[in-house]
Each structure stands twice: as structure tokens, then as C-alpha cells.
């Protein structure tokens, strides 16, 4: 079975732990999809937004899905909003994974037909959401 490619959208300053956990799980034989770590070497709040977008967009387009880690501050991130919109414009499948159930979801994930959710951050819930996307 071909691996499902997943771009991870996350708040670099606050949710890197969760991203790293996903990457560790990716090495597990039960996962039959591949994560793409799109982290950049430039700080995300760099003044060079055009450069950052030029580096991230091809990575989103190359993946079949965008998985958004929904942490405490995710809904306030213009970068995550842009990543979600870029994925939507390219008709990519969307997955939202909350690190806590009361975290506010980015508006770009709400009301979108076909968006899959893992309402808790655990292996089985995330695997199911990706498998069903």
C-alpha cells in the first residue's frame, strides 16, 4: 500500500513537541503513511514572508493531506491560516488534531466538508483520522 503523505501545520513556537511526537510515531510500523516535516530554518516571523511562502507552498502541494495541530494559540496564527488556505485551494484533504479539547480551531478548518478530526492527541485517533481522509 502506498504511503499517504501528510504536511504538518503547527505553531513552531508552541507546538513543536506535538509535531515531534507525530514524527516519532511515523517510524512505527502500524502507520502506513509518511509525514513531511516542513519546518524551515528561517524564523516563521521573519520579515521575508515571500521566501517562507515559496518554501512551504511546494511542500503543501506535494502532500496529499494537511494535518493541523490545534494547540492553544493555533487559531491566532496567520501562517497557519495561510497554510490551510493553500491546502484548500489545492483541494488537499484536511485533518485537525487538537492537543486539548477546549482549544479553539482555526476558522479555515471549520465547516469544510470532508475535514477529519482527531479530538484527542493519541496514536489511534490520529491514525483513524488520516486513514479516513
Provide structural commentary.
With 133 residues, the chain is an alpha/beta fold. The chain has a single domain (4-32, 49-132), classed as Rossmann fold, CATH 3.40.50. Helix content is 35%, strand content 19%. The chain contains four helices and five strands; from the N terminus they run E-H-E-H-E-H-E-E-H. It has helices spanning 16-26, 49-62, 78-89, 123-132; strands at residues 4-9, 33-36, 65-70, 93-98, 116-118. It has a five-stranded parallel sheet, sandwiched between helices. It is globular. The two termini are 15 Å apart. The model has no long low-confidence stretch (mean pLDDT 85).
Helical amount among residues, as a percent range? 25-40%
Order of helices and strands: EHEHEHEEH
Number of helices: 4
| Largest sheet: spatial strand order | 2-1-3-4-5
In total, how many domains does the architecture comprise? 1
Globally, the shape reads globular
Number of strands: 5
Averaged pLDDT: 85
Low-confidence stretches: none
Q: What is the class in the CATH system? A: Alpha Beta
The CATH architecture category equals 3-Layer(aba) Sandwich
Query: Any idea what the radius of gyration is?
Result: 14 Å
Biggest sheet architecture? 5 strands, parallel
Going by helix content, strand content and strand pairing, the class is alpha/beta
Beta content comes to 15-25%
Kindly report how far apart the N and C termini lie.
15 Å
CATH topology: Rossmann fold
Task: Write a concise synopsis of the structure shown.
The protein is α/β, with parallel strands linked by helices and 133 residues long. 35% of the residues lie in helices and 19% in strands. The protein has helices at residues 16-26, 49-62, 78-89, 123-132, and strands spanning 4-9, 33-36, 65-70, 93-98, 116-118.
Amino acid at each position: 500500500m502506498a504511503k499517504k503523505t501528510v504536511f504538518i501545520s503547527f505553531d513552531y513556537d508552541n507546538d513543536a513537541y506535538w509535531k515531534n511526537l507525530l514524527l516519532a510515531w511515523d517510524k512505527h510500523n502500524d502507520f502506513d503513511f509518511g509525514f513531511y516535516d516542513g519546518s524551515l530554518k528561517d524564523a516563521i516571523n521573519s520579515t521575508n514572508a515571500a521566501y517562507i511562502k515559496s518554501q512551504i507552498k511546494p511542500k503543501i502541494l506535494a502532500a496529499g493531506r494537511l494535518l493541523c495541530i490545534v494547540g492553544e494559540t493555533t487559531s491566532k496564527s496567520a501562517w497557519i491560516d495561510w497554510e490551510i488556505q493553500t491546502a484548500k485551494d489545492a483541494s488537499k484533504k484536511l485533518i485537525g488534531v487538537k492537543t486539548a479539547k477546549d482549544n479553539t480551531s482555526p476558522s479555515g478548518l471549520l465547516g469544510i466538508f470532508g475535514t477529519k478530526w482527531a479530538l484527542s492527541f493519541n496514536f489511534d485517533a490520529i491514525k483513524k483520522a488520516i486513514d479516513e481522509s
